[in-house]
Specification:
Helices cover about 25% and strands about 30% of the residues. It has three helices and 13 strands; from the N terminus they run H-E-E-E-E-E-E-E-E-E-E-E-E-E-H-H. The protein has about 240 residues and is α+β, with helices and mostly antiparallel strands.
Length: about 240
């Protein structure tokens, strides 16, 4: 009888411990999941246009140096919708309005680092009595010029894009702040192929001619081909 009771007690103890370990593991997994989610928590991106119809386009200059350690400029052209204005990046956000800002997506942050950015164009200074704040806004087209550093090279082409966070208002209402990827998915645009920044320099014209001549010589006289083409003994 004692053996039966002891065996029952041990079985119950092991079952309890098993459930405890399982619950603890699930708890730890949940905590880890929240940490990862927080660490890689990217903004919720809009995928369609709204009444303000602000359009963002991205342009890179391929003549600039693009290699690990180099810095280049990426230009975002901002075109506010008719009757709408975009809050400038150098306006304070303390009053509740959202000045423009840009961010580097986590997916490509291994290869690129956003160093700084600046705006061009005319900025109109005003006062918003509803928010009790001095305002700075763009009422026309302008550029946001981002300074980006290449952190490391990649074996495959890297799609380059940026995130833009902005808010627009007209004379009577404001749109909620939004995040877009630029180039804009809402317009069917795709990230810019950054393979030109990662590949080795193209072979010179002379190298191409020499390689073509060697290949031709191999095919015509495969048994007596001489690499430098100084001489060959053909039919």
């Amino acid at each position: 009888m004692r053996r039966v009771l002891l065996r029952f007690f041990i079985s119950a103890l092991l079952l309890t411990m098993s459930h405890s370990v399982s619950a603890y593991a699930k708890f730890q997994a949940g905590v880890a999941g929240r940490i990862v989610a927080a660490r890689f928590n990217e903004p919720k991106l809009d995928t369609k246009l709204h009444p303000d119809s602000t359009i963002f386009t991205l342009k890179l200059d391929p003549t600039q140096p693009h290699k690990p350690g180099s810095t280049f400029e990426a230009t975002i052209h901002v075109n506010p919708g008719v009757g709408w204005h975009v809050w400038s990046a150098d306006m304070s956000s303390e009053g509740g309005l959202t000045p423009l800002k840009i961010a580097m997506p986590a997916q490509i942050s291994k290869y690129f680092e956003l160093v700084s950015f600046r705006e061009t164009g005319e900025v109109k200074v005003g006062y918003d009595s509803a928010f009790d704040v001095a305002t700075r806004a763009h009422y026309g087209e302008y550029d946001v010029i981002a300074k980006v550093t290449v952190r490391e090279a990649a074996a495959a082409p890297v799609p380059f894009y940026l995130y833009v966070n902005y808010q627009t208002c007209n004379e009577s209402t404001c749109q909620p702040p939004r995040w877009y990827s630029v180039p804009m998915v809402a317009l069917g645009q795709k990230p810019i192929d950054f393979s030109f920044a990662m590949r080795e320099p193209d072979a010179s014209h002379e190298d191409v001619i020499e390689k073509a001549a060697e290949d031709w010589q191999k095919q015509k006289h495969p048994r007596v081909w001489i690499p430098n083409m100084a001489s060959y003994d053909g039919d």
